[in-house]
Every structure is written in C-alpha cells, then in structure tokens.
Fold these 2 entries.
Entry 1:
Amino acid sequence: MVVHADELQEQFIRASGPGGQNVNKVATAVQLRFNAALARGLPERVREQALKLAGSRATKDGEIVIEAGRFRTQEQNRADARDRLAELLTRASEPP
C-alpha cells in the first residue's frame, strides 16, 4: 500500500481554543485531505474500509479530511495529521 505525495493536500488554518498571544493570528493547524477514491496505491478493499473507518471525516466524493491542531507549530501538526492518516490506513488494511 502506497500513498503518493501528490495525493495529499495540506492547508494551514487557524487553530481554535486557547493559545496565548498567537491565537487567531497564526495558522498553525493543518487540514490534510486525501482522496481515497482516486488513490492509485490502495486496493479496493482497503479503500472501502478506510472510508468506512473515517466516518464523518470522509466526504461524499471519497476524500478523507483530517484536521490537526493540538500542537503549536505547523510541523508538529503536519506530522500528527499524517500519522493519523497512516494509522487509519493501517487499520483499514488489516484482514477482516
């Protein structure tokens, strides 16, 4: 199973909640979008299971949207979002 870099879209957004002086000024949260419906490296069974596991994070067009904003830096939030996507895809690839 392979996720190609061109299949991921990242957009940095403002994090909600407490954050000190930078709250609502710096876009440190990340919104990661992965189009599972068009992913070249996913077997059909894994694709279907990933969308099912994503639940409300999956769009009707087959995109999985993960928002990560619990850290104070873009780099940490980017890594967190990618880790969460990898975890979801790993769970989806487990045998039934």
Note: The first strand starts at residue 8 and ends at 13.
Entry 2:
Amino acid sequence: MIIQMQAGVGKSDPRVAAVVEKAKQYRLNPLVHSEQGTHVGVVEIHLKDGDMKTSALSEHIFVALDGVENVRRVTRPKVTLSANGMRDGKHIKLSPSTLIGAGLPCQIVAGPCTVDEKTVGPIVKGLVTEYGITAIRGGGWKPRSSPYSFPGYGERGIRLLLNAAGHEGIGTVFTEVMESQHITAVARIKQEVGYTGTVVPWVGARTGNPMLLSELGKQYEFPVMLKNSISAKGVDDLFERAERVLAGPLYWNDDGTLDEKRSMVSGNDNIILCLRGTEKTDPKSSYRFRPNHDWAETLRARSWAPIAIDPSHSAGTMENDLVLKNIRAALQHDIDMLIVEGGYPAKGFGGTGFRGLCDAEQSFPLERFGEILNLVSEHNRAFKKQ
C-alpha cells in the first residue's frame, strides 16, 4: 500500500509523522520516501507487512488523515464486511464537509421518490434554503411492483436531478440504479451537466442483479448504498450483496482458478447498508413493510459499514404520522443516516395537490421537515453526551 501526501507536505511535516504513527498502531512497517520536483516536493509512505498484513486493512484508515492525497494498493486485498481491521467502523465521505459512520452525527438525506421536471427544482431549493439539507435523493429508474406503475423518467430524470442539485450547491445526490448501464449513464450525465458533488448510486430492494453489484465494485471512487431485499430474513442478505461489491469484477482461468493478475483492481469498500423493511407477516398492520430497524444492532456488531434506515418505505403512508413515528423508532438504534422521501408541500405546489408520481402516500410534507430535523438534532445531542 502506498500513501501519497498532498503537494507541499514535506518529509518532516507533522502530518507525515501522524500517518507513520497510525501505520505503526496497526502493526505495519512504514517507509517514507521523498522526491523534490522543480516547484514542490512529493512524499510517499510505503506500507509493508508487519505483524498485520496490509491486505487486511482498508484504505479508509489513511484516506481520512490530514494531508493525505490518495492511497493506492500494490496487491489486491480480500475485503469482507466482518473483518478488515476496521475496529471502530468505516467513515465514508459524502462530501468534503460531511462524513458518516460510527461515532459521528446522524445525517439526513431527503427528496422525491421519482424526479419530474416541474417540481424537482422547488423541492431541492426548499430542502436547502428552509432546512439546510445538503444531501438529496431522487429516482430516474424505479423498479415498480406493477408494470403499469410509473417507472421514472430515466436519464432525463437524472439530468434534472443533477442540474437542480448543482444549482442549489447540494454536495451529495443519492439515486437508484437497476442495471450496469445505468452506472455509465449517471457518470456521463454528471460530467455533461458539470455536477461537482458526490453521486451515491444505490441498489434497491427489488434489484438483486449480481452483474450490477460486481460492476459497482469497479466504481471505487464513490460510495454505494445497498438496501436489503424485500424477502430478506436477516442481515446475511446484505452481507451477500455487499460481498459482490467488495470483490468487484473477477476474472477466471480456463481451469477454473482465479486469475489474480487480471483481477488486481480492488473492489469498492465505500459501502452503506440501508434497512428499508421486509415483507410483513401481519396483513392487518398499518405498515407497508415490517420495519427491520433492530437489524442495525446486529450490523453494528458484525460489520464496519455505516448504517442507514429508510423509514418511508416501511411505513408506506403519512396517515396518523406513521412515517414520523417510524423515524422516531429508527433513531433509537443509533443509526448513521436517515433517507426520507418527501419535499412536496402538503397541498402540492400551487395548491394542485400533486405530491409525486410514485409513492405519494408516504411523501413527507416540506412544511414539516423541521420536525425531522428536531428529532435528529435531539438524537445527536444525546449521543454526544454519552
């Protein structure tokens, strides 16, 4: 593993010493190399195996340190959710100023289920200007349970979403992908519209495409969010999905053995695990899906990944404030992120009553987002006192 420091950070800089000390804490052998160019010096720290192997550690341990420009591997690691030397959990960078993960404040992601031309701009503007939300969600492709339900606007929806996010200075955009070509399309549109923030693709509950998961393993420059499947019986469902992203695309020899040379590119360990509810067993329940918030406790004990909860899908309705009640219950499990559908005014823009073309019943009204912020702020204040 090679750590490159930022330009201008010299060999005797305290930030170099901090990286060396961190490496020693993980029982590695760090070697500092420096080269002086015409204008600036460049420092690299080569990490050699000690009592701990570099293949057992994630790059995130060093990426987050002050003065580090990038971290690259020389050999491919085998990464799992349950190992990897991440004693205190992985912190994932959503934007230059926002990290999520164990020990950090819970963050809010909000926005419409699907994007449409007339409302996405006002929704994003309202969430930012009125509530200071800096991470939004929105769908271009939606895997609906019925072929006659609105499936989203596709690439046009992604373009509208990223344009609105860029216009309002949003740092992070979450959007669902269903097929491998969606990843390419999102990256292309991001470049075309000049959006400079972070895009987080997610794999939803109705999508279990192994090829898509492996393809996301190649995209290690951005985070990936994985939701549990509707039929999941426990956290192993998320572990199985994550394993494909962590491994990335693998190549095999004719004799069935792994081609290590062609499979050198590391998978993506910038993974967020999202609990969104499972098939309910009680048909009389008011909830659309059975909330599985309690799985957060198991995930925290067994894995290093940040944990999100989607309270909108498990509630399925705003009737009797069910989404808000679900948020309150979710926060009891010390989660890292809430992802909430909403942002339309209660009566729709212009009093039209329109609240989206998809899952309008569970859309949280724009005027009431202060209630969510208050719950999360109260949770974060209590958490800091522990």
Note: The two ends are 36 Å apart (CA to CA).
